[in-house]
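From the pipeline queue, job 12 of 40. The input is one protein chain; the requested action is below.

Action: predict structure.
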Amino acid sequence: MAPISFDIFGYIHEARQAHGLRAQDYTRYRRFCATHLRTVRKAAGLSQGTATGFHKRPVDGEVANSGEHVEIQLLLAERAWAYAMDLREQHSRTEEPRQLQHVVRRLRAGSKAAQQLARIAPGFCDVRTGLAAAAYWLQLQSQLRFEQQEWEAALDSAALARVIVGQLAQGSSQQYALSHAMLEALDPVVRLAAYRTRMPGAQQAQPATIATQWYETSMQGGGDRVSTTIPEYRAIVAALDSLSEAGDAVFANELGWRGGKVTFASPQLAALASSAQTQLAAALDSNNSGMNAAVAGFRKVEKAAQRCYAESAAAALKTQSAASDALTSAYLAVRLYSVCALNAMAVGKRAGEAQRIARACGVEASAAADAAVGRLVGQWGIAAAGRPQAAELTKLVVCYDQIRARLATLRAIVGEAHSRLSTAASREVRAPQLGDEVAAAEAYYACVRGYYSAMLHAAHARHRDALALLDATAGESARRARELVAELATRGQSRAEALAPADRLWAQWLGVSADDVARIAAAAEAAMPVVRGLCAGAGGAAGAWIGDPSRPPAMVANPLAAAKTKAGGASAPARVPWLVDFDAELQPVPAKPLFYDLAAAAIDFDMDAIEARAGKPGSSKLGSIIGSLWGAR
């Protein structure tokens, strides 16, 4: 017969939460255990009450072979434990000494039933179920020893239980949450027992550190001593060793990102993340030749992280454990990592395409700042030689529009993730600085887009519009980009950046420096005199601006641009010339019935004529006045 699997932690948690312990009603839970125990015994054919009397039928190794036998022992232990907790609450009100003695007797009965389960479970259950039964017994055993003030024995049981539960935490998010909920229940016993045994450094150390140190120093080398307090100690250690040899040990799945480490529990997610990083590293080393495979790998990571996040959030909602909340934040950080990598690859693809177009057209913004005047005239005097490059410049501007849209979406995703990340996870990945880096990159690419958009206007002989765009790029847009980059520089780096593939990709396409902003601003400023020369014959305010650059033309307020900026749309200058580089899209608003009602209320209808046409007798003038006073019309 194949070994069976039984989720002991999940069964206990569901039973406690559904039958009274959510409201700390131990009496109701004890009654449920007693009633359900009779039902399970009857289903398993182990009823003890018959028509002729009571016949005890214990569950031993000879008859135990199914999940019902595990359930019987669990209900026996839980019934005794619930009775003990109920008596303890009564003692807190009455302070009756005999009630404490009764608490010890009930805990001893519960520990005996759990110990019987730990003995018989390895015979017909798998290794994980057997270890879960041992951990459950050791938890009750530690509470019993604690009540008896046997501190060393209590610390032995609690420390070994923590070791077992730590091994069993590997697996699903629910298993992780339930395991750590049990660990938190063991922490008070570990702390006080270590203090009573005068363990060095116990007052300052965490319970996990105390339990690990006690297990390694006092239990592994003292098997004979521990076997007197924990009779199944050697069998439990052998089961732990077999679980470790099977590769199901405690998790160490870590993701290095932005100089920090994100630790999570899913080995499948860790394998997907490692594969995606390998593919991205190979693509970066081979000049982006295998980037499509890296994109597919990171999409798998995003889907897996989203699934793990949903499962972990559901488990954390059930257990209310700090470790579960931390695991949920870890999965959210892994999803944010995959989203940032995907968006960085998309930005890199569009930026690389834009750079190829600019090189093909000979209009690189980086070369314009230091080029000769003749070179600039060749770039900006496109209209004089015809418009064959206007289509390419349109593609160039569209590329940067797509980059800005991608970065705006990424900034919103980063802000939402930062609001849900825990403080520790946010500190590890530096989530606030991540959002600022996206904003700085968005401002920089807005400058580049403004520069090439001005060049596109010049290609269509709209030199005044091109001049206004260059002025906005070199002025307001560049100033905002410089402020964001300077703010990032003042924060500094708390730790050295890891040279992970995702970090290299991010630094290549979204890492903006002050030199980058100065280069594009200088290109715009260098192009402005050339464009002034192209439109020197213009009159009016524009001609005055061309003759005297210190006197810009009158700018008109654009309420649509200001409204779009306030509503969270793409950034636009607060004061721009009309019909220049405005990308707002007006959406039609459908008329609602309410609008029709409001319109009808504002119209003075001839009610007498309407009623006459409807065949109703008209009313007198006096009746009309009285009716209008009482709301008849």
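Job complete. The longest strand covers residues 253-257.
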